[in-house]
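Researcher: Structure prediction, please.
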Amino acid sequence: MISHERREARYQRRRAARLQKKAELAREYGEYETVFSFDNLYQGYRESVKGVGWKASTQRYKASALSHINKTQDELLAGRFRSKGFYEFDLVERGKPRHIRSVHISERVVQRCLCDNCLVPMLSRSFIHDNGASLRGKGYDFAVDRVTQFLARHYRLYGSEGYALVFDFSKYFDNAAHEPIFEEIERSGIDDRLAALSEYFISCFGDVGLGLGSQVSQIAAIALPNRLDHYIKDKLGIKGYERYMDDGIAIDRSKAKLVECLREIRRICAELGIRLNEKKTQIVKLSRGFTFLKVRYRFGANGAVVRRVSYKSIRHMRQKLKVFRRWVASGRMTEDDVKCSLTSWRGHMKKFHSYYCVQSVEQKYRELFAA
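Model: Predicted structure follows.
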């Protein structure tokens, strides 16, 4: 057997193994009746009410939970389940206004069951390891630690010589195209009825865009740039790449390679209907440091990776304490609540090299809440 025949035989064996594994997962997670069993719906209900038990709508649902779940299962199996619409409201997060469309508790139970028992296990199997948002075992700390590991490995190999490409998607949830998401869902191998229901939940937000109050939207937003992730990792071979929802970073020794990477990012984003935020997209020298996920990274002495929170985060916490002072004075909040909030923030800050920033915030707290 000559070399290309051996390669073809290896490829066919691996392809057969992948298809077999996909078929096994489809039997476990991709069948409609299995996903929407009563036990799965009940578990979805238990997860959905966590942290929101104080809401009147949640309390009404809990009062007759078993009958509600039984009715929902009948509607799902008969193909009659329909969305009840959204609870819409606005909030301001870190100075940025956001419009929230939250789903009804009965629909939240269905979406939770669908995501936990179908969409997440079937879609996430094709995600790169460094897709760090909204998945079990990952999250903000995972993304920050991975970037730290990339920088430490880069310094061992090349020192501080190199560049970082930092990019950001503009109004990602508002402008997300649906067709590429539908293609990812259908390619996963799940039941046609599960795919149709998933696409229905997404289509409820209009012709384009995703809702911030929907769990199906969260997994859809993670899956949309999946082709981009694989191109950067597999085709361009950039090992130091991390994406956290609509923020991404690529680290490499060669600036020319990152310029090529940025060109391909623009091309693939155009194909996926994603808008790149040109103001926040830049290539910077590693020796100068860069900001990613509100954290400022730079090399310290002997190549140690120094992580400091951005100045905006410190300023935001100082402003928050001023608001808390007014709320305590009006009786809306107690001083114990303020202490809990500050303790939680201080625990988060232990991950960073920001001792003097923490001291400045605590000094502000003493000025505002001194006995």
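Model: The longest strand covers residues 86-93.
Researcher: Thanks, that helps.
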